[in-house]
Amino acid sequence: MLDVRTQAAPIGAPVPTEWTRKDLLDTDTLSADEIALILDTAEGMREVRSRPVAKVATLRGVTVVTLFYEQSTRTRASFEVAAKALGADVVNLTASGSSVEKGESLIDTVRTLEAIGADLLVMRHGKSGAPYLAARNTTAGVINGGDGTHAHPTQALLDLFTMRCHVGDLAGKKVVIVGDVLHSRVARSNLWSLLASGADVTLCGPATLVPRSLHGAAAEEGRCTVSTDFDAALEGADVVMALRMQKERQEKGLIPSLREYIAGYQLNARRLALARPGALVMHPGPMNEGIEISPEVAHGLTSVIEEQVANGVAVRMAILYLMATARHA
Ligand code: CP
Fold first, then answer.
1. Is 63 strand, coil or helix?
2. Ligand 1 pocket, CB under 6 A
């Protein structure tokens, strides 16, 4: 594998032969080796980020387009920082202000971006599956930056990277994911990458917010359990990840009230004490402090929530690097 720490390997240099995918659409088809390759590469990128001049020219000549049909702070900004840190040219597009507002289709949009010279397309879309449609209609590499309620692979990979930094090998470690699993693309992508890494996963939430399909997956897998009892689920947990609770869930009748949700499922100091001592606290953001997580826990000693955001740059650098260099192999 190319050592990014030696910097500036131009396009055409030896590439990591292990990475062969054109697109990164979800974690469900990634092998443990592919996941390890991304995380190991991200270690090198983190070292690059720690330098006084935290930039290299490795992706000079590569054009990365971020195409966001939905709001984002972390994903969009960190992909832009990551691409620039590797010397790529970056074009940022949102649906608002682009020809999408005039009715241009997704397929026409991605073909237009390809014609302009996009090598890699980072895409977020409100409809599940949209990045798959895009990927089938462009030669550019497509990276899913979050699609509907389906998948958010780069978030799952930065979450895994952050866990690995603190707890080491995930094999046999217990990770509890709590909250609105039903609508969470983060939970889905985390489930697949955690299981591939050997972790035991507990999905926890009100019965109305943990989908039946995952009950089935849990039963088949054996290392994934589903629980509606948060206190019981926390026993022996090495990592607890709270998910954002969207207030409109109550309007749709999926939870009786936010007050009852907080009573049953808020990650607070009393509950955290039920997990293993020193259990990591995680949240993909944006947080509703005081709802799914209490402020004291969100900003407590074992919270790595800000670190997740920082690691997002290194992990996204790794993904851009692997995908761009494989394209030019
Ligand atoms: N976690 C996450 O995807 O955050 P953004 O919506 O801010 O990108």
1. strand
2. 72-75, 146, 155, 284-286
Give the distance, in angstroms, between the CA of residue 195 and the centroid of all CA atoms in the same chain. 15
Give strand pairing partners of 91: 65
pLDDT score, position 100: 84
Q: Which residue CA neighbors atom 4 of ligand 1 most closely?
A: 74
Atom of ligand 1 nearest to the CA of 145: 3
Q: How many angstroms does the Cα of residue 222 sit away from the middle of ligand 1? A: 30
Nearest CA to ligand 1 atom 6: 72
Is the Cβ–Cβ distance between 296 and 271 less than 8 Å? no
Ligand 1 centroid – CA 95 distance (Å) = 17
User: Model confidence over 93-151: pLDDT tens digits?
Assistant: 998 888 888 888 999 999 999 999 999 999 999 999 999 999 999 999 999 999 999 99
Mutate to test the pocket of ligand 1, among 74, 177, 316 (most ligand atoms within 8 A of CB): 74
The pLDDT mean for the chain works out to: 91
Q: Which atom of ligand 1 is nearest to the CA of 71?
A: 6
Domain segments of the chain as ranges: 32-152+310-327, 153-305
pLDDT in tens, 265-302: 999 999 999 999 999 999 999 999 999 999 999 999 99
Q: How far apart are CA 140 and CA 88, in angstroms?
A: 15
Superfamily designation of domain 32-152+310-327: Aspartate/ornithine carbamoyltransferase (3.40.50.1370)
**Residue 131 Cα to ligand 1 middle (Å):** 16
**Options 3.40.50.1370, 3.40.50.11540, 3.10.450.50, 3.30.70.100; CATH of 153-305:** 3.40.50.1370
State in Å: Cα 13 to ligand 1 middle: 33
Pick from 161, 131, 162: which is nearest to 146 by CA? Answer: 131
pTM over 0.90: yes
Question: What distances in angstroms separate CA 98 from CA 69, 92, 131, one per listed residue?
Answer: 10, 10, 18
Task: Determine the Cα–Cα distance for residues 292 and 290; give it in Å rounded to an integer.
Answer: 6
